[in-house]
Amino acid sequence: MAEWRPLKDLILAVDYSQKWPLDDIMWPGPPLDWHTLISQELKDRLIAWAAFFNAHMDWETGLFGSEERRRWYDVEGLQLMYDLQEALEGKFRVRLRLPV
User: Fold this and answer.
1) Does the predicted model carry a pTM greater than 0.85?
2) Euclidean distance between CA atoms 38 and 5, whole angstroms
3) Are the beta carbons of 81 and 94 closer than 8 angstroms?
4) What is the pLDDT of residues 30-75, one digit of tens each?
């Protein structure tokens, strides 16, 4: 019988100047091969979501400049979390971390 192991958390979040919004860039060892794990379309959406954060988040206030921008960022982040979880087919537990 196979031993049960908890899934590794994959955190979806963006920090200032970060271009890739997943925390696997901080993990030890070789990077994950995202070309084999998710579609190019999903990869492009992740990069666009991070770029949106860097273009609109004010470094001093932590605000997005408008409620519409903040709402788009939050909703797209939630959809990305769901889409990633589906694409990764249970290999990781995807968790979304939004700015407060």
Assistant:
1) yes
2) 23
3) yes
4) 888 999 999 999 999 999 999 999 999 998 888 999 999 999 999 9
